Amino acid sequence: xxxxxxxxxxxxxxxxxxxxxxxxxxxxxxxxxxxxxxxxxxxxxxxxxxxxxxxxxxxxxxxxxxxxxxxxxxxxxxxxxxxxxxxxxxxxxxxxxxxxxxxxxxxxxxxxxxxxxxxxxxxxxxxxxxxxxxxxxxxxxxxxxxxxxxxxxxxxxxxxxxxxxxxxxxxxxxxxxxxxxxxxxxxxxxxxxxxxxxxxxxxxxxxxxxxxxxxxxxxxxxxxxxxxxxxxxxxxxxxxxxxxxxxxxxxxxxxxxxxxxxxxxxxxxxxxxxxxxxxxxxxxxxxxxxxxxx
Length: 294
Prior knowledge:
By secondary structure, this protein is of the alpha/beta class. The chain has helices at residues 3-6, 26-38, 58-72, 87-95, 116-129, 140-143, 149-158, 172-181, 196-201, 216-227, 231-247, 255-263, 280-293; strands at residues 9-13, 43-46, 78-81, 103-107, 134-138, 162-167, 187-190, 206-209. The protein has one domain (3-231): Alpha-Beta Barrel (TIM Barrel), CATH 3.20.20.70.
């Protein structure tokens, strides 16, 4: 199976469950991995934004990686987050990445606010050092800067080890221009669950999703319907999910999806500071939405 076939469809951007005493909750993590795989997602994403990796120490990360690799047991491919705002540090980590994974997901450097030339040089340095193929990740709402379509196109055409992009900017127009001029083999994933069907209609390879943690079957069915060009059926699922999807982000992510998963009995509702759980009022709102989706 080639790399593109491995990632055709839905990737669940896994949360990291915690206990009341702020430890990693491996029992809940096991239930979550089984839940999303049994729900039909095509691949897992470990330590994306949703996994709270910035607040997880290196020894914990090693234990989490070992646990997920064992629990997955090669059932589905896996991507691991390896990003930050120190290019040479990320390049060093990328060179030593765990080869039980199939690719790395590397976010646009945040806080530094590099210009487009700096972003290109960042990905050039990281991709040349990386032991695995690289998927870039553009999420300007979090990083404070946008990877422009022109820069993505340059990356796609000039950096052979960058094989794809998770595009989470709110601009459908930008997504369109990216798809217009990247090579056909360059995988562009939807990174915004609220506009995933429009992205799929424009040629997205699949989606890397927060919502798929909680509703893996409905979400991955929707993506497969899009791939099969059954957009009328996919739209029905998208409209059924949209209010629930938006509720997961109203008071911050992953607070929303952790609230949903706790209501579903899969994880406990704990985050690590500076993130906090959703308000009681919003929890009840999410609870009602889940009841309506059953």
